């Protein structure tokens, strides 16, 4: 098959995006639908994306409002989904909330999510610690305790949750060692 110059080749740049009419509200709403079909986005996030595509601020705002009125955008649903995914991947409350703020989720949805996140931290910190231990067994030595504490802190866990998990690891390993003896 002869080379036709269309995609699939390393080093070839993608074609520049087609110019858009900055005031075309219907095209902006259609673009918003396509963007939301790929993944959920907050109102702010979608507005930023539309503006980067070349639509004016007023056009992007109107398109976002139209999509929200039709139920395509729901910051509360997005916040719950992001929180659930982040917790299941071993991230803590602070990291989840920072991600939501960075995505432009409205304050009310972030506040409700923050209240709901208080309960699941013990399991999430345990999952994260086990991943960071990478299958190591036995009581953690001082260097591993420091590494675990730093890793858990980077993942967004509070110091109280980190201390409780490190204590649990030390005592669980001590109890396992005594049972074997």
Low-confidence stretches: 175-181
Q: Give the SSE string.
A: HHHHHHHHH
Shape: elongated
- Distinct helical segment count: 9
Largest sheet: none
Task: Calculate the terminal CA-CA distance, rounded to whole Å.
Answer: 70 Å
Helix content estimate:
55-70%
Strand content: under 5%
Total number of distinct structural domains: 2
Alpha-carbon Rg, integer: 23 Å
Chain-averaged pLDDT: 84
The number of strands is 0
Query: What's the multimeric state?
Result: single chain
Secondary structure category: mainly alpha
Walkthrough of the structure:
With 181 residues, this protein is an all-alpha fold. It folds into 2 domains: 25-69; 75-181, no CATH class. The protein is 66% helix and 0% strand. Helix 1 packs across helix 3. The radius of gyration is 23 Å and the shape is elongated.
Features of the shown structure:
single chain; 181 residues; mainly alpha
Write the layout of secondary structure elements.
Elements: H1 25-38, H2 43-52, H3 57-69, H4 75-88, H5 93-102, H6 107-117, H7 121-133, H8 142-154, H9 159-180
Care to give the gist of this entry?
The protein has helices at 25-38, 43-52, 57-69, 75-88, 93-102, 107-117, 121-133, 142-154, 159-180. The protein is mainly alpha-helical and 181 residues long. It has two domains: 25-69; 75-181, no CATH class.
């Amino acid at each position: 098959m002869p080379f036709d110059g269309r995609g699939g080749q390393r080093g070839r740049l993608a074609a520049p995006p087609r110019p858009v009419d900055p005031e075309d509200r219907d095209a902006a709403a259609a673009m918003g639908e396509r963007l939301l079909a790929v993944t959920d986005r907050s109102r702010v996030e979608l507005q930023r994306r539309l503006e980067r595509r070349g639509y004016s601020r007023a056009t992007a705002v109107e398109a976002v409002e139209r999509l929200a009125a039709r139920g395509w955008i729901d910051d509360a649903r997005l916040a719950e989904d992001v929180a659930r995914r982040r917790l299941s991947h071993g991230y803590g409350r602070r990291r989840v909330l920072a991600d939501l703020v960075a995505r432009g989720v409205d304050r009310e949805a972030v506040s409700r999510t923050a209240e709901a996140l208080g309960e699941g931290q013990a399991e999430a910190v345990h999952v994260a610690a086990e991943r960071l231990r990478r299958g190591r067994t036995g009581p953690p030595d001082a260097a591993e305790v420091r590494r675990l504490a730093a890793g858990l802190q980077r993942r967004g866990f509070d110091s109280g949750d980190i201390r409780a998990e490190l204590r649990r690891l030390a005592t669980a390993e001590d109890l396992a060692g005594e049972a074997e003896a």
